[in-house]
């Protein structure tokens, strides 16, 4: 069955995310992707003028997916937002890698800017709730602390450094989420504290 333009756009984005997950963002080549999909090296130009355009689209999609997961977790408390962040990184490693490689992206792209703002809006909203209850004094530092904690944990797990240090949790992927919950709980409340205590 011949591919439609929409199919090709989706396939290029999915393939770019797969390469980024497997080999790193630096290894994403739009020509190689086109070749692997059996289309001419110029076929991508209808959708993406360049590698930067392709990776920017992948990053924007990643931020939209991440924001949706964070928003879904928000009613359960800020701690669960952090766990959702780690879950996203585990489940979407290619998107995650691309999203946080700014040199490969067009940071002025309106779709990416809007998607990033949505993601960080959820993180900021969680800290604002904590600030309104007097649990944090410096909201900016609290956002940095929360983001650093979950992003760092996700990165250590994805890179294999957690395992290399003998700190990777035993068990399936949910063991990583339990570790994220316990680690974030040290900063923002007991994992068993419920929505207000998380």
Q: Could you walk me through the main structural features you see in this protein, from its secondary elements to its overall organization?
A:
By secondary structure, the protein is mostly helical. It has one domain: Tetracycline Repressor, domain 2 (Orthogonal Bundle). Helix content is 70%, strand content 0%. The protein is built from 10 helices and no strands. α1 (5-23) crosses α3 (51-73), α3 (51-73) packs antiparallel against α4 and α3 packs parallel to α6 (110-132). Residues 190-198 have low confidence and may be disordered.
Task: Write a short abstract of this structure.
The chain is mainly alpha-helical and 198 residues long.
Give, in order, the helices and strands. HHHHHHHHHH
Profile the largest sheet. Answer: none
Mean residue pLDDT: 87
Q: Would you tell me which CATH topology applies?
A: Tetracycline Repressor, domain 2
CATH superfamily: Tetracycline Repressor, domain 2
Helix percent band: 55-70%
Quantity of strands, as a count: 0
Q: Per DSSP, what share of the residues sits in E-state strands of 2 or more residues?
A: under 5%
What is the CATH domain class? Mainly Alpha
How many helices in DSSP terms? 10
Structural class: mainly alpha
Tell me the distance between the termini.
Answer: 50 Å
So, CATH architecture? Answer: Orthogonal Bundle
How many domains, in number, for the residues?
A: 1
**Are there runs of 5+ residues with pLDDT below 50, and where?**
190-198
In one word, what is the shape?
A: globular
Question: What is the CA-atom radius of gyration, in angstroms?
Answer: 19 Å
